[in-house]
Amino acid sequence: MGLDKVVDNIRSEGRNASQSTVATARKEADAILADAKRQADEIRAKRAAEAQAAADSLVKRESANADLEARRLRLAAERELVSSLRTELEQRLMALPEPKREAHIKALVARANQPNGKIWVAKQDEKLAQKLGLKVAGTFEGLGGVVVEAADGATRENLRYETLLDEIWNGSTNEIAKLLKA
Predict the structure, then answer these.
(1) Which of 155, 147, 111, 114 is nearest to 129 (CA)?
(2) pTM for this one?
(3) Count of C-beta atoms within a 10 Å radius of residue 169
(4) 77: pLDDT strictly greater than 90
(5) Angstrom distance (rounded) from CA 149 to CA 141
(6) 147 neighbors 120 (Cβ within 8 angstroms)
């Protein structure tokens, strides 16, 4: 019986040792799994943050592009509006009734301060200028108005509608821009 007791003791010690080894292995495995899970969570969080940053950057970029495109479209619309306004003004000047055109010719010649000057008028206004008693030196193609040259030919004053409209137009671009932005 003594041998049985020794065998039982060895078996008992072996079981205890194996249980201790298994417990230690389980602890190590649990620690390894916990560390792996922590690393996976960190990687997942890092990737999520990178993805969010990339998405935010994309949204910001696309928003800036959309703002730029909206400004470009607005400027194009404003240019088109200004251009159509200019065209409408030119058409209205061209369609002025004869009494108005006659009054304009008279006023522009007086404004020119070129006594006895040579007068050019728009082709369509030649008869009106002659009706006013003006000596017409020639005609030009255009909307209307006059060009008066000094008697000695030294200076010329351009009072054509196109020139006057350009002066007014260029002087008013800031006001026009403010009105369009309002």
Answers:
(1) 147
(2) 0.60
(3) 15
(4) no
(5) 17
(6) yes
- Which amino acid is it at 20? S
Half-sphere exposure of 161 (CA within 13 A, CB side): 22
Query: pLDDT tens across 94-114, in order?
Result: 999 999 999 999 999 988 877
- What angle separates helix 173-181 from helix 2-94, to the nearest 10 degrees? 130
* Residue 180 clears pLDDT 70, i.e. is over it: no
CA gap 134, 114 in Å, rounded = 13
Query: Residue 101 contacts by C-beta under 8 Å, 6 or more apart in sequence?
Result: 125, 128, 144
Strands 136-140 and 118-122: parallel
Report DSSP letters for the chain, one per residue: -HHHHHHHHHHHHHHHHHHHHHHHHHHHHHHHHHHHHHHHHHHHHHHHHHHHHHHHHHHHHHHHHHHHHHHHHHHHHHHHHHHHHHHHHHHHHHT--HHHHHHHHHHHHHHT--TT-EEEEEGGGHHHHHHTT--EEEEESSSSEEEEE-TTSS-EEEEEHHHHHHHHHHHTHHHHHHHHH-
Superfamily of domain 97-181: ATP synthase, E subunit, C-terminal (3.30.2320.30)
Domain ranges of the chain: 1-95, 97-181
